[in-house]
């Protein structure tokens, strides 16, 4: 849309129009971000294939430095209604395309994500703060969902029902559910979109995406690549907003045109959105809060468990339970491992851990540390702000002797905090692990096969890692139980975006 010409980049004062000045400012901002393809940096929403702006904008900041990354369109409820209508109109044709057509377009989208991996990874780091290696890793993870669901599109089979009586036959067919509302958080600004969007598009649905206000650029870059891949206009729409987010989310859940909602975020917001959706009995997939238990039994490989604890912290493993006989060994090794972390700007090569997303996140971690210490916990590593590094840095922290009455047992920290609690028996730790309203994931380390089966079945969670800290992949169902939500993403979740229809044929005897 924007060409790199001297006429655009260096217009004369007499020829410059307001539109040209806006383009110059935008391109200068994109150049300062260090992107190879500066046209991936979009500052407007997307409705019906057109980049859609507004007079009002909001600012997105780099959480590492506090510096402004850009101004993004502050879209409204009226804009959201237009996006939903565009998706509805596009659904009429997109839903009738062949599965092979959708497969081919999604595979082209997947290829473009790999071709632009450096820029997409950099955008994730700039707006989210995670180290660049993790940003690029997220892009690869994100792209894997597009690839997976491209292949699922051509395998969305129906069924033939055995004859119910002479002269009658029955079949089951799967049909796309309709327009889908997708609401995503800032922690995985790309992957949280593609594992929902990939399934929706593969099923034949169209979508309206609302990315987090802290991280809109990754979503907009994905939309640009989808356009380049040839996905028709109106199939993907992106609404950006900060100020109007509550009203927009309400519209995305209540609008009768929308037939399905997929949300990732807090349990509090999930309950609010579910209430909105209940008025029209919309189908929902919810991935809400989590506060995963991580259990180390006395027969575990302690070194392996330490590495697993570091890895699993990405999926809410803050409550770490260690059996008494290996407690001291595990605590010392985890503290040593965390001490080796390098905290800093995600773009710096040596950085292993970046900033939190904003000041409120810092305050929450700090309050959880203070609460645990007030109840007898000891700080082994960290426990303090790192203001000298930037506005949103908190030292990776390990606390020992944490009492189960501490706040972090009740409320997910969502920050660089690992708390250690001693336990004696298997029954005790299962009770402690399940003593939470959440049930997203759980992890434990043991070399006892019988215990592995028992504990995996007893943990009240949707996903279990046994002797492994990373369990999420496109091929695996992702989701929780209890107040961590319902429905699944990844794996065969294309079914979440389809209606099952039974068709009975009679009069077949001639």
UniProtKB/TrEMBL annotation:
Q: Which residues form the Aldehyde dehydrogenase domain?
A: 53-503
Major enzyme class: oxidoreductase
Which PROSITE patterns does UniProt cross-reference here?
ALDEHYDE_DEHYDR_GLU
Which pathway does it serve? Amino-acid degradation; 4-aminobutanoate degradation
EC annotation from Swiss-Prot or TrEMBL:
1.2.1.16
SUPFAM superfamilies in the record: ALDH-like (SSF53720)
Single GO MF annotation? succinate-semialdehyde dehydrogenase (NAD+) activity
User: One Pfam family of this protein, by short name?
Assistant: Aldedh
What keywords is this UniProt entry annotated with?
A: Oxidoreductase
Q: Which GO terms describe its cellular component?
A: cytoplasm
Q: What residues sit in the active site?
A: 287
What reaction does this enzyme carry out catalytically?
A: succinate semialdehyde + NAD(+) + H2O = succinate + NADH + 2 H(+); succinate semialdehyde + NADP(+) + H2O = succinate + NADPH + 2 H(+)
GO biological-process terms attached to the record: gamma-aminobutyric acid catabolic process
- Report the superkingdom from the record: Eukaryota
Cross-referenced InterPro entries: Ald_DH/histidinol_DH (IPR016161), Ald_DH_C (IPR016163), Ald_DH_CS_GLU (IPR029510), Ald_DH_N (IPR016162), Aldehyde_DH_dom (IPR015590), Aldehyde_DH_Superfamily (IPR050740), Succ_semiAld_DH (IPR010102)
Gene3D superfamilies to which the protein is assigned, alphabetical:
Aldehyde Dehydrogenase, Chain A, domain 1, Aldehyde Dehydrogenase, Chain A, domain 2
Instruction: Tell me the protein family, please.
Output: Belongs to the aldehyde dehydrogenase family.
Name the chain's protein.
Answer: Succinate-semialdehyde dehydrogenase
Annotated source species:
Serendipita indica (strain DSM 11827) (Root endophyte fungus)
């Amino acid at each position: 849309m924007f060409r790199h010409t001297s006429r655009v980049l260096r217009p004369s004062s007499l020829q410059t129009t307001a539109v040209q000045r806006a383009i110059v400012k935008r391109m200068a901002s994109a150049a300062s971000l260090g992107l190879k393809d500066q046209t991936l940096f979009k500052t407007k929403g997307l409705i019906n294939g057109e980049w859609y702006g507004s007079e009002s904008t909001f600012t997105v900041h780099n959480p590492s430095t506090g510096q402004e990354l850009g101004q993004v369109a502050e879209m409204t409820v009226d804009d959201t209604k237009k996006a939903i209508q565009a998706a509805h109109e596009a659904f009429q044709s997109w839903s009738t395309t062949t599965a092979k057509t959708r497969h081919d377009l999604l595979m082209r989208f997947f290829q473009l994500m790999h071709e632009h991996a450096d820029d997409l990874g950099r955008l994730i780091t700039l707006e989210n703060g995670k180290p660049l290696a993790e940003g690029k890793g997220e892009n690869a993870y994100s792209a894997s969902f597009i690839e997976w669901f491209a292949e699922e599109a051509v395998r969305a089979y129906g069924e033939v029902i055995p004859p119910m009586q002479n002269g009658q036959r029955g079949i089951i067919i799967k049909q796309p559910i309709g327009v889908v509302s997708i609401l995503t958080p800032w922690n995985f600004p790309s992957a949280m979109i593609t594992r929902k969007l990939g399934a929706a598009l593969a099923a034949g649905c169209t979508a309206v995406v609302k990315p987090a206000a802290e991280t809109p650029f990754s979503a907009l870059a994905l939309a640009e690549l989808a356009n380049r891949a040839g996905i028709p206009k109106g199939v993907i729409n992106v609404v950006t907003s900060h100020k109007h987010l509550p009203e927009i989310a309400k519209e995305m859940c209540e609008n009768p045109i929308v037939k399905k909602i997929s949300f990732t975020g807090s349990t509090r917001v999930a309950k609010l959105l579910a209430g909105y959706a209940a008025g029209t009995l919309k189908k929902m997939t919810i991935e809400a809060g989590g506060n995963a238990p991580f259990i180390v039994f006395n027969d575990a490989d302690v070194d392996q468990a330490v590495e697993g604890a570091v890895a699993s912290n990405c999926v809410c493993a803050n409550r770490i339970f260690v059996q008494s006989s290996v407690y001291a060994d595990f605590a010392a090794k985890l503290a040593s491992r965390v001490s080796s972390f390098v905290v800093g700007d995600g773009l710096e090569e040596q950085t292993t851990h970046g900033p939190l997303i904003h000041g409120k996140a810092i305050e929450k971690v700090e309050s959880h540390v203070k609460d645990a210490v007030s109840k007898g916990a000891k700080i082994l590593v960290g426990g303090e702000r790192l203001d000298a590094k930037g506005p949103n840095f908190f030292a990776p922290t390990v606390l020992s002797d944490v009492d189960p009455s501490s706040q972090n047992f009740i409320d997910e920290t969502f920050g660089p905090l690992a708390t250690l609690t001693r336990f004696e028996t298997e029954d005790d730790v299962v009770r402690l692990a399940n003593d939470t309203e959440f049930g997203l994931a759980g992890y434990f380390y043991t070399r006892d096969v019988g215990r592995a089966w028992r504990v995996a079945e007893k943990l009240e969670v949707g996903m279990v890692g046994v002797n492994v800290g990373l369990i999420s992949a496109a091929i695996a169902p992702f989701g929780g139980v209890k107040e961590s939500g319902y429905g699944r993403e990844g794996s065969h979740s294309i079914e979440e975006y389809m209606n099952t229809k039974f068709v009975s044929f009679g009069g077949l005897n001639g």
